[in-house]
Amino acid sequence: MSLLIAAPAVPTTLHVGSGKNFRPEWLNLDIEPRWRPDVLFDISQPFPADGTVRLPSQRFGTVTLRAETFDRILAQDVLEHIRDLTTAMTTMLHLLKIGGVLDIVVPHELSLGAWADPTHVRAFNEKSFDYYTVWSWYLGWRTHHFRVGKVEFVGSPYGQQLQAQGKSMEELLRTPRAIDQMYVQLVKQPLSPEVRANTEHYLDRPLG
Questions:
Q1: Which CATH architecture fits 13-204?
Q2: pTM score
Q3: pLDDT tens, 23-38?
Q4: Which of 18, 23, 188, 207 could form a disulfide bond with 96, CB atoms 3.0-4.6 angstroms apart?
C-alpha cells in the first residue's frame, strides 16, 4: 500500500529574483532556470485578466499566485535589473496582502556598484519610489498603493569616513561614492477616500 505525501504549504513570504541566494523558508522566484528557483516567472510581465497565475514547483506542487497571497516580499539586488519596473511593482502590489511589506535593496545612483554590472538598467535615489506611494494615481492604481515604512542608506567606507567627520546625510547623498545601497520598506495599503477621489479625478477626466 503506497502512501501519498502531501506537498508542504506554500510559504507566505516571496523571494523575488532569488538567484544564487536561495532561501529554504521562502518561496523563491526567478526568471533564470540555472538558479533552480522554486518557480520560474517574470515578475515584470502583466498578470492575466483573472489575476491568477499557476506555476509548477518541485517543492510545493502547483503554486497559485493571486491577489493578497503574501505577507512579505523580498526584492534584494533585483529591481535594478528590471526594464519594466512599473509592471513589476504593480505585480508585487497585487500579490501582497493589505499591510504586507515589500523589502527592497537597491544600489544608490552615485555608488560605484550602480553601473559596474552591465545588466543593470537603472539606479535609485531617495525620490525613486514616489510614484508608487504619493503619486500612485499616475500609474493608474485605483484601489491600493504603498506607503513608505522605512528608508535606510548604507554608506561605503568612504561615506563612513565622511560621516565620522560630521557630514550630514543630505551631504552624503550628494557625494559620489559615499552611499552604496538603499534599503526601502514599502507597505501595501488601500487608497484613502481623499486619494481615491484625487485618483479618479485625474484618471477619468476627459482628455483635451
A1: 3-Layer(aba) Sandwich (3.40)
A2: 0.93
A3: 999 999 999 999 999 9
A4: 188
